[in-house]
Design brief:
CATH class of one domain in chain A: Alpha Beta
Shape of chain A: globular
Helix content of chain A: 25-40%
Number of strands of chain A: 10
CATH architecture of one domain in chain A: 3-Layer(aba) Sandwich
Order of helices and strands of chain A: EEEHEEEHHHEHEHEEH
Largest interface: A-B, 26 and 16 residues
Structural class of chain B: mainly alpha
Largest sheet of chain B: none
CATH superfamily of one domain in chain A: P-loop containing nucleotide triphosphate hydrolases
Largest sheet of chain A: 6 strands, mixed
Helix content of chain B: over 70%
Oligomer: heterodimer
Distance between the termini of chain B: 48 Å
CATH topology of one domain in chain A: Rossmann fold
Radius of gyration of chain B: 21 Å
Number of domains of chain B: 1
Distance between the termini of chain A: 42 Å
C-alpha cells in the first residue's frame, strides 16, 4: 500500500482558550506542491510548526510515509528533522556563520558529514540555486533580503529532505525577486523530487507554485483541491480571499 | 481586595519564574556533562568571555587594590597598625574583592551580551532553525557558554588577585613609603592557600550563576526589540543580585567557624 508522503489527521491546537487549529485533515503526496493560503491569523504558521515539531499539537496525528511522527520530545528538538526542512519567513540564517557555513551546517550536524564533504554539499547546493561563489564568504547581514531567502532555501535543500516547508517565501520582496523565488521553489521541488508545503497569502505566488491549494479560515480547513479549481469555488470566504487577485488579473 | 489580587498574582508569577529557572538550570547543567561537545564553540566562548574580560577585570582590581591600600593605611594609622596594610590588602582581594568585583564586572559585560545574543537569535527564529536542523540549542548555544563562564571566572579572578595585590603594592611602596621587601613578605606570609582557593571556588560558582542567568533570560526572551532589552537588563540585575547572595552563603560555608 502506498502511503502519502505526509498526512495530517484531526490536528487541533489552542493557545489558552483560543482555538487556532480545529480538526485539520489533509494529505500531500510525493513530489506534490501544496500551498496553504489564508488571511493573517488563520493558523497557517501554527499548522506548519506543528508538522515540523516546533509546536506540540493538543490533539491529532501527523504521519510521514505512514509512520506517526512524535512531536513531544523532552528536549523540544524535532524528531522530523531528518525528513523535513523549513524555510522561515525571515530566513533565520545564523548571524555568526557565513553563507557556506550556514548551508553546510545541516549536512555537518544533521547528516553527520565531515567538514570537507559538508562544504562540498554546500557549494553544490549554491550552484543549483545559482548563488555566486563570491557570496560564500559573506555573512547574512551583508546580503539583501532576497539573497538571504535564496540562501535559506539552499540551506534547507542541502540536508536532502523528503519534505520542505516554505513560510511566506515572498513576504517583503519586490515583484521581480518574488517571481524569481517562486521559480526557484518550483524548480527545486521538481528537480529534487521532494514534497513542498508553502504558506502564503500572495495568490500570484500560490498559483505559480501550487499543484494543489488548501485554504485555512479561522483555524479550519475550508477548501482544498487542485489549484486550477480554486477560482471555481463557491465558498464565500474563498471568493472573498481571491477577489483582489481576480480583479487584478 | 484589589491589593490582595495584585499580591497574589505577583507571588504566583514569582513562583512560576522560579520553577522555570530551576528546570532550566537542571537542563542546562545536565547538557554541560553529556556529549555532544562543541569544542570549537567552547574555545570561542572562552576567548570572548575570558580573554576579552581581562582588561575590565584587571583595571577594576588594580584600582580596588590601590584604594584599599590607601584607605586601610589611613584607618590603621589611628591604631598604629600600618604594618597590617599589606596583609589586609592581600586577604581582602583574594577572599572577597577579587571574586566579587570580577563576578559583577563580568556579569555586566558578558551576562548582558549572552542574553542579548540568545534573545536576538530567539526572536529571529534562529533557535528554531537550529532545532529544525536537528541540533539541540542546549548543546549548541547554552552549554558552551556556561562551561566557558565556569572555566574563565576562576582564571580571571586569579589574575585579578595578582593585579589587585600589585595595585596595593604600588601605593604601599611608592606613595606610603613601605619597604618593598617587607611589603611583599607581609603579603605572602599571612596568606594561606585556603584564602586563594575559597576565592576561586566562589569565582566558579559566580561563573555558573552569571552564565545561567544570561542564558535563561536570553533563551526565554519575549518577542521584539523590547523583549531583548528587557532580557539583557534582567540578566544583569538578577546575575548581580545572585552573586551577592551566594557570596554571603559561600563565605558562611568556608569561614563561619
Amino acid at each position: 500500500m502506498k502511503y502519502p508522503r505526509i498526512e495530517v489527521r484531526e490536528l487541533k491546537k489552542s493557545f489558552d482558550d483560543t482555538v487556532v487549529l480545529d480538526k485539520i485533515n489533509f494529505k500531500v503526496h510525493l513530489g506534490e506542491s501544496l500551498v496553504i493560503i489564508g488571511a493573517s491569523g488563520s493558523g497557517k504558521s501554527v499548522l506548519t510548526k506543528c508538522i515540523v515539531g516546533l509546536l506540540k499539537p493538543d490533539n491529532g496525528d501527523i504521519f510521514l510515509d505512514g509512520h506517526r511522527l512524535e512531536t513531544n520530545s523532552s528536549d523540544n528538538t524535532t524528531v522530523a528533522a531528518n525528513s523535513i526542512s523549513y524555510v522561515f519567513q525571515n530566513s533565520a540564517l545564523f548571524d555568526s556563520l557565513n553563507v557556506i557555513q550556514n548551508i553546510s551546517f545541516g549536512p555537518q550536524l544533521l547528516n553527520k558529514q565531515n567538514e570537507k564533504d559538508a562544504n562540498e554539499i554546500a557549494k553544490e547546493s549554491m550552484k543549483k540555486l545559482d548563488i555566486h561563489p563570491k557570496f560564500g564568504s559573506m555573512y547574512p547581514k551583508e546580503l539583501s533580503s532576497s539573497s538571504r531567502k535564496i540562501v535559506a532555501i539552499a540551506r534547507a535543500l542541502a540536508v536532502k529532505p523528503k519534505i520542505i516547508i516554505f513560510d511566506e517565501p515572498s513576504t517583503g520582496l519586490d515583484i521581480r525577486a518574488s517571481h524569481k523565488l517562486d521559480y526557484l521553489i518550483r524548480e527545486s521541488v521538481k528537480n529534487e523530487n521532494i514534497t513542498a508545503i508553502t504558506i502564503t497569502h500572495d495568490m500570484n505566488s500560490a498559483l505559480h507554485i501550487a499543484d494543489s491549494i488548501a485554504m485555512l479560515h479561522e483555524g479550519k480547513l475550508i477548501w482544498s483541491g487542485k489549484s486550477s479549481e480554486l477560482k471555481k469555488s463557491n465558498r464565500a470566504e474563498v471568493r472573498r480571499f481571491i477577489k483582489p487577485f481576480l480583479s487584478s488579473t | 481586595m484589589v491589593l490582595i489580587k495584585h499580591i497574589g498574582r505577583y507571588v504566583l508569577e514569582t513562583l512560576e519564574t522560579t520553577g522555570r529557572l530551576v528546570i532550566f538550570f537542571a537542563r542546562a547543567t545536565s547538557h554541560c556533562f553529556r556529549p555532544p561537545y562543541f569544542y570549537r564553540l567552547i574555545l570561542k566562548q572562552v576567548i570572548d568571555i575570558g580573554y576579552y574580560s581581562l582588561p575590565v577585570v584587571g583595571l577594576t582590581t588594580l584600582f580596588s587594590g590601590m584604594v584599599l591600600a590607601l584607605q586601610s593605611y589611613n584607618g590603621f594609622t589611628r591604631f598604629s597598625s600600618e604594618s597590617a596594610v599589606a596583609t589586609v590588602v592581600a586577604l581582602s582581594i583574594t577572599r572577597e574583592l577579587g571574586p566579587v568585583l570580577a563576578g559583577l564586572m563580568v556579569t555586566g559585560r558578558v551576562g548582558s551580551s549572552i542574553a542579548a545574543e540568545l534573545g536576538s537569535m530567539k526572536v529571529s527564529d534562529q533557535v528554531d532553525a537550529l532545532r529544525i536542523l536537528g541540533t539541540n540549542p542546549f548543546d549548541y548555544l547554552i552549554a558552551p557558554r556556561i562551561i566557558a563562564c565556569i572555566v574563565c571566572l576562576p582564571i580571571l579572578v586569579l589574575i585579578g588577585d595578582i593585579v589587585g595585590i600589585f595595585g596595593g603594592f604600588l601605593v604601599g611602596v611608592y606613595k606610603l613609603n613601605f619597604n618593598p621587601a617587607i611589603y611583599l613578605y607581609q603579603t605572602v606570609s599571612y596568606l594561606e592557600p585556603m584564602d586563594i582557593a575559597s576565592g576561586l571556588i566562589k569565582a566558579s560558582i559566580f561563573g555558573l550563576l552569571l552564565g545561567i542567568m544570561g542564558c535563561f533570560h536570553g533563551y526565554n526572551c519575549s518577542r521584539g526589540a523590547q523583549g531583548v532589552g528587557l532580557a539583557t537588563t534582567n540578566a544583569v540585575v538578577s546575575g548581580c543580585i545572585l552573586i551577592l547572595i551566594f557570596n554571603y552563603l559561600v563565605t558562611e560555608l568556608f569561614f563561619s567557624s
